[in-house]
Design brief:
By secondary structure, the protein is mainly α. It is built from eleven helices and two strands. The protein has a two-stranded antiparallel sheet with strand order 1-2. Helix 1 packs across helix 9, helix 2 crosses helix 9 and helix 9 packs across helix 10. The protein is globular, with a radius of gyration of 19 Å.
Length: 289
């Protein structure tokens, strides 16, 4: 029994880390920039489909697909932000939501037209296939890779936000844009760079998700909901709260589907409702760095 629980816990943490990697960009654009970016899932899906094209059609490696997906979606996000979204920062939240939903449906229609409606996946390199024996357990190599990569990204982002000049300038621009402009800070470039980072991370999360959960045109809508749950439960304003929320929901989802297969898929939604009723601002609202 203990072995089963440890195996489920490992799978749940890996799935939660994947959800966190997909929601990290949304945590940045919504939590740090205050922009309701409901088109976040579109960049994750496009990153995933780019990986499919890179590996299957172009013959590239999965390892190369990771930076390609990140950089391509970061570039696309920067262009979209400068051409379209920057005009919406001062608009009401409802205008931001309408635009993002429309953009999301345009991307879904484009994906369906180019790749069709069938499920897509990509083969993993040999180093990420199979399992590793550890303390009597068989741990999936790819799931372990997700945990290690996620931990590395968390450390890098925390240091970047807390210790670098860019992080200090970004926090100042978010707190008061007019004062930041008056002090000579390049607010427009800071927001464009931050938005590009968020969409790049979405693209990276999309690439990483393909081998584990597959990819289809409904992917942006399905995982956008989960990303919103993670950011809402974790609380906006940082990246630590969403990490705790993502890992918790991942473990809950895996255990629920194993022990309660009839209702396991709905368990995280019920828990989300309960948590937000108790803590409307999220578990860590106002306590994140």
């Amino acid at each position: 029994m203990a072995t089963v629980w440890i195996g489920l816990l490992f799978d749940g943490l890996a799935y939660g880390m994947l959800l966190y990697l997909m929601s990290l960009g949304l945590a940045i654009t919504l939590g740090l920039m205050g922009f309701i970016h409901l088109a976040h899932g579109a960049y994750a899906a496009l990153g995933g489909y780019l990986a499919v094209a890179w590996v299957k059609q172009a013959g590239g490696s999965f390892w190369a697909a990771l930076p390609v997906g990140f950089l391509a979606m970061a570039a696309l996000g920067a262009v979209v932000e400068r051409m379209l979204l920057c005009r919406l920062y001062a608009r009401p939240a409802f205008d931001q939501i309408l635009f993002c939903i429309g953009f999301l449906f345009v991307v879904v229609a484009g994906i369906t037209a180019v790749w069709g409606g069938s499920q897509q996946t990509v083969p993993l390199p040999a180093t990420l296939q199979g399992q590793i024996a550890f303390a009597g357990l068989e741990l999936g190599r790819y799931r372990l890779f997700l945990l290690v990569l996620g931990a590395a990204l968390i450390v890098a982002l925390q240091l970047g936000l807390a210790r670098t000049r860019w992080g200090m300038r970004l926090r100042a621009a978010v707190d008061d844009r007019d004062v930041a402009r008056g002090l000579g800070l390049p607010v427009a470039r800071l927001f464009a760079g931050t938005f590009a980072l968020g969409t790049g991370l979405a693209g990276l999360g999309g690439v990483l998700s393909v081998p584990l959960v597959g990819l289809d045109p409904a992917f942006p809508l399905k995982y956008l909901v989960l990303c919103l749950i993670i950011v809402a439960v974790g609380g906006v304003g940082g990246i630590g709260g969403p990490l705790v929320a993502a890992l918790s929901l991942g473990v809950l989802d895996v255990f629920g589907k194993y022990y309660l297969p009839q209702v396991g898929g709905f368990l995280i939604y019920a828990v989300m409702v309960g948590l937000l009723l108790r803590w409307p601002g999220g578990l860590f609202a106002g306590r994140q760095s």
